[in-house]
Amino acid sequence: MRTYAIGDIHGQLAKLVDAHRDILADRERTGDGEALVIHLGDLVDRGPDSRGVIEYLMHGIATGAPWRVIKGNHDHMFAEFVRYAPEDPRLPSGLSWLHDRLGGAQTLASYGVAQKLLEKRASLAKRAAAAVPPAHLEFLDSLPLFHRTDEVMFVHAGVRPGVALQDQSEDDFLWIRDEFLNDTSDHGPLIVHGHTPVDAPEHHGNRVALDTGAAFGGPLTVAVFEGRDVSILDGGARRPLLPFQP
Hints:
The protein has 246 residues and is α/β, with parallel strands linked by helices. The protein contains eight helices and eleven strands.
């Protein structure tokens, strides 16, 4: 069974629309109009139109598009900020969701909310709660932490090595980096993830990395999975993505 996967979007609506256009063209060439499309999370932050991305995905799903959207850590932080939850303790010291590195201010701007000079976090969160449609928060809350087929598991950040897949924590699905990225063991299914930007898609045998930095001017990568075989849609054409050779 064929599955498409799209890397971290980060408010880049135009790139997302182009990615879906490439997928549609590939479906038409191959005659497989029902193939599932997985979005690997981080819909929001940094880019110019986080609101538009959420609305586009909600509309597509509501009208029957075969799409699945996985929750990313930025999606979680956005929803928590609007509810005025404490800053996530996993953020580096001194950083908040509103910091330029994380891009929360750009997400709020897409909802018409700009931080006032010296405005306190509580005041800004209250104005955000009034501006963000409840349906958007409900959509983010409803997102699953992974999607699994027989041979491939799609997650946002990765999995913790040595822990059974059914026992993984939400924190690891959303946040894990080095312990997962540096591990070469077989996890069972091929793990497909975003979260950690790479210059180009990477296939490490046990995992495939698809966040190619759309938030920072890079492309929004689309991969095609048929069993454990992986191809990249590049300008509408497919090219195989083979595992790194040691």
